[in-house]
Amino acid sequence: MLFANARKDSTMKRITCILIVLLAIPLGLDAQTVRALEPGCEIPSLAEEKSMGEAYVTRFERETPLLRNEVIEAYLRHLVSRLAETSPIKNPGQTYTILIVDAYDVQAYAYPGGFLYITSQLLRAAESEVELAGIVAHEIGHVLLHHGTCEMKRRQEMLDAFLNKFPEEERPYVNPYWVIHVIESLHNVEMQVASRIHEQEADLFSIRMLLHARYDADMYLRGFERMLDGEKNERDPEYLRSHPASDRRIETMKKEARTYASLLNIRKGDPRRAPINSEFATMKKTLENILEHPSQP
Ligand SMILES: [Zn+2]
Predict the structure, then answer these.
(1) Which domain holds residue 251?
(2) Distance from the CA of 1 to the center of ligand 1, in angstroms?
(3) Is the pLDDT of residue 1 over 80?
(4) Is residue 34 part of a domain?
(5) Domains contained in the chain, number
């Protein structure tokens, strides 16, 4: 059965590659080595990855309202650089930009090349710096593990394979929207499986990144659990779609926090890096002020 086997093969390849990547992280391998261990997805150069992301975010920013404020953006840039400094995966030359999307969803996004977005509602929902740091770490994980890049490349491969079924002279007349619709229907299960695995990988990476930066991962998980509970009562937001079940997700991360903390010799009660509370409080106050008085600059 051509299609069933093809899907199974591709899924298995991805699972194998992800297990290898996960095993590689505790050893502190650099990003080049992690790339070489990803047989299912040939990762382009950083410059190419960045231009892939730029093409996507140019369209994204045209269609999405951003909340621009230098105080909040400077705080977020500082948070990203603190996390990147002690990252368990090093990718020399990797840069990040982080911007705020003005939206009511509790949501975060990462695109190839280090383009990160978090919503104003997520900033409101975070009650401490560590809660925000954990979510930002999850998004950085997507970038460093090239999830978006591999998903975009896989989609392009499916598109090319489908178009190749048509005689060359007919290809310019095939409606691209129809092709994308057909591909998404045919490969929906495979894409959802890949997405769930990527989410699980980014969840585990976020715990490791927090612990390397000496943040309290348990405190993050209490906040994350609260945010998940809050969202469950409404509707499944984008941030939680195509993700593992919430309870299993929290349990897996708790287990990872215990195991990885002991690997790094971090014991309960050890001095953790103090959150920069005054800066977090200033950021929150600035945000509330903007949201209450949207017309003011
Ligand atoms: Zn994610």
Answers:
(1) 45-292
(2) 33
(3) no
(4) no
(5) 1
> How far is ligand 1, taken at its centre, from the CA of residue 252, in Å?
15
Cα 40 to the center of its chain, rounded Å: 19
Sign of CA dihedral 162, 166, 169, 172: negative
Q: For residue 30, is it within any domain?
A: no
How many whole angstroms from 146 Cα to the centroid of ligand 1? Answer: 12
Rounded to whole angstroms, the Cα distance separating 38 from 24 reads 11
Tokens of 268: 């309960």
Q: How far apart are CA 69 and CA 126, in angstroms?
A: 18
The predicted-structure confidence for 9-33, as pLDDT tens digits, reads as follows: 333 333 333 333 443 344 344 444 4
What's the CA-to-centroid distance between 263 and ligand 1, angstroms?
25
- Any domain includes 216: yes
- pTM, full prediction: 0.81
Matching residue, tokens 């715990």: 207
**Of the given ranges (36-40, 110-114, 205-209), which has the lowest mean pLDDT?**
36-40
Distance from the alpha carbon of residue 176 to the mean position of ligand 1, in angstroms:
27
| Domain presence at residue 3 | no
How far apart are the CA of 239 and the centre of ligand 1, in A? 7
pLDDT confidence tier of residue 111, bands split at 50, 70 and 90: very high
Q: Name the amino acid, one letter, at 136.
A: V
Calculate how far, in angstroms, residue 139's C-alpha sits from the geometric centre of ligand 1: 6
